[in-house]
Write a structure and sequence with these properties.
mainly beta; six-stranded mixed beta sheet; 18 strands; globular
Length: 255
C-alpha cells in the first residue's frame, strides 16, 4: 500500500499541513495568535479556539502550538484561534473548556499532564452533514510561577528544537523563526555510531523563514539523556527558497 505524504507552508498564517493519503487524515499545525496582554509568566491563561469541522476532528494544544487533525470528512481548518499565553509545559491545573458555538458538543479527551507531555486534546464529532464553525474557550491555572519553574521532566525534543531555533535566529536576525513539523525521529542506539549509551539522536523537519523568504530544513541533535542536556544541534536547508515581494531592499539570503 502506497502512502503519500506532503507538506505545505502558508507563510502568512505560519500553518503547516500534513496529509497521509493511505488513511485520509489531514493535520494542520499553527502558532496561536497572541491576545492583547500576552504574558507567558502569568499564573492563569486561556485560549479562544475557533475551528471549522466537517464530521470528525481532533484539536490538540501544546505550548503555543495548535493542531487540527481531520479524522473524517472535509479538511478542518483554524478560524482565528488566539491565546493569552502558551499552555504551560511544567504545571497545569483546573484545565477547563467552555463551548460557545457549534451544533454538537465537543469533548475533552485528554487533559494536559506530565504523562502526555502537557498536551491537551479536544474531540469534535459532527455527524449532521456539512461543516460547522466551533468555538470553545479553554482556561487553566499554573501551580507555580511558570516563567521560572523547571519542567518536572526533561523534554528532549523540545530542548533540541529550542537549540536549533536559537542558532537559526542568531544567524539570521530579527524576524527569523522556525516552525517545526509535528513528529521527530528518535534513535537511542548509540553503540558503534560515535555516541555512548546515554546519548540519543533526534532528527526532524521544519520550515524556516526570514521576512519574505521561507525554506524547508532538516535538523538533528545529539542528546545526553543522563545529564539531560543537548550535546549538539544543527540544521540544513533541504528545499528551494521561496521568496515573496522584496521589501526594505532586503536581499540577504538565509543562513
Amino acid at each position: 500500500m502506497l502512502t503519500k505524504t506532503f507538506y505545505c507552508l502558508a507563510i502568512i498564517t505560519a500553518t503547516v499541513c500534513t496529509s497521509t493519503a493511505a488513511f485520509g487524515q489531514v493535520e494542520i499545525q499553527l502558532r496561536a495568535r497572541q491576545l492583547p496582554g500576552w504574558d507567558a509568566r502569568s499564573r492563569e491563561g486561556h485560549c479562544a479556539i475557533r475551528v471549522w469541522v466537517d464530521n470528525r476532528a481532533e484539536v490538540r494544544m501544546r505550548g503555543e502550538q495548535i493542531f487540527v487533525r481531520t479524522l473524517e470528512g472535509a479538511r478542518g481548518r483554524d478560524e482565528g484561534s488566539e491565546c493569552s499565553q502558551p499552555l504551560p509545559y511544567n504545571s497545569v491545573r483546573d484545565f477547563q473548556i467552555r463551548q460557545t458555538a457549534g451544533r454538537t458538543r465537543v469533548q475533552l479527551a485528554q487533559e494536559p499532564s506530565r504523562m502526555n507531555n502537557f498536551t491537551a486534546m479536544i474531540v469534535v464529532d459532527d455527524r449532521q452533514g456539512g461543516g460547522d464553525n466551533y468555538a470553545f474557550d479553554v482556561s487553566w491555572r499554573a501551580d507555580t510561577d511558570i516563567g521560572t519553574a523547571p519542567a518536572p521532566f526533561f523534554d528532549e525534543v523540545r530542548a533540541c528544537q529550542d537549540i536549533v531555533r536559537q542558532k537559526f535566529v542568531s544567524r539570521n536576525g530579527r524576524g527569523s523563526y522556525i516552525d517545526f513539523y509535528d513528529f521527530a525521529d528518535r534513535d537511542n542506539e548509540g553503540r558503534g555510531r560515535g555516541r555512548n549509551r546515554s546519548q540519543e539522536l533526534i532528527q526532524g523537519r521544519g520550515s524556516a523563514r526570514r521576512w519574505n523568504e521561507s525554506r524547508t530544513i532538516t535538523y538533528s541533535c545529539v542528546m545526553d539523556n543522563r545529564q539531560q542536556r543537548v550535546v549538539s544541534g544543527n540544521y540544513q536547508f533541504s528545499g528551494n527558497s521561496v521568496r515573496g515581494n522584496e521589501r526594505n531592499n532586503d536581499r540577504q539570503v538565509m543562513r
